[in-house]
Amino acid sequence: MGVPDVMRAVRVTRHGGPEVLELAEVAVPAPQAGEVLVRVGAVALNNTDLWTREGAYGSPDDPEALSGWRGPIDFPRIQGADVAGRVAAVGTGVREDLVGRRVVVDPAIYETTGLDAHPVGLMGSERDGGYAAYVTAPVERVHDVTESPLTDDQLATLPTAYGTALGMIERGRLRAGETALVSGASGGVGLALVQIARARGARVLAISSGSKTEAVRAAGAHDVVDRAGGIPAQVRASAPEGVDVVLDVVAGELVGEGLPLLREGGRWVIAGALGGYDVAFDVRRLYLHNAQVIGSSMHTPAHFGLLMDLARRAEVQPVVAAVFPLDRAAQAQEELSRREHVGKIVMHP
Prior knowledge:
The protein is α/β, with parallel strands linked by helices. The chain has helices at residues 47-54, 152-156, 158-171, 188-199, 213-219, 231-238, 253-258, 284-287, 301-312, 329-338; strands spanning 6-12, 21-27, 35-44, 77-78, 82-90, 102-105, 108-110, 119-122, 134-138, 142-144, 179-182, 203-208, 223-226, 243-248, 262-270, 292-295, 320-325, 344-348.
């Protein structure tokens, strides 16, 4: 089947609420040299979608400035970082036999070409993303997962959530036999952290609450701490010798309250600020115990390669909470913002 000239896409037209999302007919992008065109089978939603739309990232000089993931956004912008689909066409210099292959797109825009490069941009923020029927991507960012038993919906959940989780676990040097504490464990990144840490052979404590507790246990948590019940005391009761690595997407007051929970040489890895970005802690708990606080933004190309190996072998089982059609993108983002679900929300173009 040929590639059409136009497609439906959802674009963000300015910073604001769900009302700034518009469904439009736009030209199908042509793959440039070294690029492929992917027909989107599924696109997953992330908190990044909400914060980019809202302009909530701030800037180094002004925490309250309206900003995308790494700076000002060029509007209109097609959102959507997480894409699974099939290669529909290739640009010059790209192998023709990739056409028809089932792929996952690494959404990161990297600072350099090395395997350990850090992301400095993101598909759906710094370039157009997958809230559309088609999206282009550099061929080196496209990973063949044709043989994976995972569905397109499951594969689409992987890039940002599981990529972020694997980046945190790698940067935190989590090893088999260590104890890991996961905050925000019922969210997309949180469930990914639980699954991957358990697969690594760690003892996993997870922070969650209410009806979500059983889903977090099912994902692999050895014990679940109720976030409404005094977290430090519960963690001490479950892990009296302390925690080796905290995998944190919440931050806020949790950092100051929880830092004394780290064992000697412990690592606190932060990849989000759901609980607030203004953090205070007793620095003595850091230097007297050779502890580390580590910032982790997504993944490196090497991390993403490891993630795709997990996907091909189905060693992780992503949880899909809900599926929406593309023309209900605003409702899908509102559902995401309520944080009442467990797992990931996916759209079908």
